[in-house]
């Protein structure tokens, strides 16, 4: 069975973007793949995290994985720092990746901001650790949101350079799996920006643990425009929203995309249903749908977060199983590199 690996950072406030863009896809994929789902705490500390918050957020992501329906028996759920192979392989990759490659990474530029001199060196080599995450298990498929494509391309380049340098075919070719109708969930306040935990206004996002009244308020207040809702005629031949149309009405297409994703329906279907309607009536439907989809999951997340022992036991079991896969792979890498081992 093909192996997939993916990770979510424990940096707080999991929202609809994390759910629709990533976590929900993990659940569907466990049918056909051996799934390894990681809470990437080592990636999180590339930017300062309060230790107590980091622990809480690590449990929160784990709770989200479980509440969303990832089966911890069938798949592996664990936090990255429990498996030393991630850090060990990342060091090898620090010596494979060229500085020029890292200098092209847009996420580093975004996250480092203006004061680049003050960014951690961990943030700079973040993509090497991400490549190590995947390749420590020789995973071939990686479900991620659009924004991670560049990192995955780099991971492929790293695997290929390692194979070339050491004249081996050791690492597999990594395939990104960018899935779903709403791979880019945008802010409820500004349809041109991604829904994000770092946006100051909580009204810009629907959190996975929001209560029904919060969801209702956020959807009601979500930015919209003055026109009636578009019909399926706007879609191009591939059934997608053309870029010009999206740029003209980013909020409308964001909300419609969220509706399609949450209802598991094609966008063309949703456009047919709401064509010519006002935002107000559509927003009521969207609220009901979001409450129905997220309500039980949010409640289960809260229940799990109130029971840290259960969550920690899942991570411990997952960590052991992950180590059992990664350790022999790392041994082979060390041998290929020429490290003397006892
Ligand atoms: N960089 C990813 C993100 O911020 C998280 C991540 C870390 C990841 N390691 C990974 C995703 C390996 C896929 C595979 O979303």
Query: How many strands in all?
Result: 5
Q: What order do the SSEs take from the amino end to the carboxyl end, as H and E? A: EHEHHEHHHHHEHEHHHHHH
Tell me, what is the CATH class of the largest domain?
Alpha Beta
Beta-strand residue fraction:
5-15%
The quaternary state of the protein chains shown equals: single chain
State the CATH architecture of the largest domain. 3-Layer(aba) Sandwich
Q: What fold name stands as the CATH topology of the largest domain?
A: Rossmann fold
Mean pLDDT: 95
Strand order of the largest sheet: 1-2-3
CATH superfamily membership of the largest domain, which one? Answer: HUPs
Structural class call reads mainly alpha
The percentage helix is: 40-55%
**How many structural domains are formed by the residues?**
2
Distance between the termini: 32 Å
Q: What do you see in this structure?
A:
The protein is mostly helical and 342 residues long. The chain folds into 2 domains: 3-181 and 308-337, HUPs (Rossmann fold, 3-Layer(aba) Sandwich), CATH 3.40.50.620; 202-304, Tyrosyl-Transfer RNA Synthetase (Orthogonal Bundle), CATH 1.10.240. It is 54% helix and 6% strand. The protein has helices spanning 16-29, 41-44, 51-68, 85-94, 99-103, 106-112, 121-124, 126-135, 149-165, 212-221, 243-248, 250-263, 267-274, 279-305, 308-337; strands spanning 3-8, 34-39, 76-79, 141-143, 175-177. Strands 1-2-3 form a 3-stranded parallel β-sheet. Strands 4-5 form a two-stranded parallel ribbon. Strand 4 (141-143), helix 9 and strand 5 form a beta-alpha-beta unit. The radius of gyration is 21 Å and the shape is globular. The mean pLDDT is 95. Tryptophan binds next to strand 1 and helix 8. Residues 5-7, 9, 40, 43, 130, 133-134, 142, 144, 148, 151 line the site of tryptophan.
């Amino acid at each position: 069975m093909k192996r997939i690996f993916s990770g979510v950072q424990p940096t707080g406030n999991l929202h609809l973007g994390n759910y629709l863009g990533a976590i929900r896809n993990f659940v569907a994929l466990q049918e056909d793949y051996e799934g390894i789902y990681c809470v990437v705490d080592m990636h999180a500390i590339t930017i300062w995290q309060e230790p107590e918050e980091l622990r809480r957020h690590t449990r929160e992501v784990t709770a989200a994985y479980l509440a969303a329906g990832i089966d911890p028996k069938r798949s592996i759920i664990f936090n990255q720092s429990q498996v030393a192979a991630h850090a060990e392989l990342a060091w090898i990759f620090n010596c494979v990746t060229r500085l020029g490659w890292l200098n092209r990474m847009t996420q580093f530029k975004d996250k480092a901001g203006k004061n680049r001199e003050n960014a951690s060196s961990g943030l700079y080599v973040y993509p090497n650790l991400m490549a190590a995450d995947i390749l420590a298990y020789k995973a071939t498929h990686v479900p991620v949101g659009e924004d991670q494509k560049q990192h995955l391309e780099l991971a492929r380049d790293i695997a290929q350079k390692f194979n070339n340098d050491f004249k081996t075919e050791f690492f597999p070719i990594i395939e990104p799996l960018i899935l779903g109708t709403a791979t880019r969930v945008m802010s409820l306040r500004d349809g041109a920006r991604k829904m994000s935990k770092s946006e100051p206004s909580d009204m810009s996002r629907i959190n996975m643990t929001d209560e029904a009244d919060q969801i209702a308020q956020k959807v009601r207040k979500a930015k919209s425009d003055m026109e009636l809702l578009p019909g399926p005629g706007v879609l191009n031949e591939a059934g997608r929203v053309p870029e010009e149309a999206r740029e003209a009405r980013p909020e409308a297409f964001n909300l419609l995309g969220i509706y399609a994703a949450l209802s598991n329906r094609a966008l063309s279907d949703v456009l047919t249903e709401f064509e010519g309607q006002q935002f107000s009536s559509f927003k009521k439907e969207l609220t009901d749908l979001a409450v129905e989809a997220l309500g039980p999951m949010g409640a289960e997340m809260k229940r799990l977060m109130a029971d840290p022992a259960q969550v920690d036991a899942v991570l411990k079991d997952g960590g052991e199983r992950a180590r059992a896969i990664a350790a022999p792979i790392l041994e082979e890498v060390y041998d290929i590199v020429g490290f003397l081992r006892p």
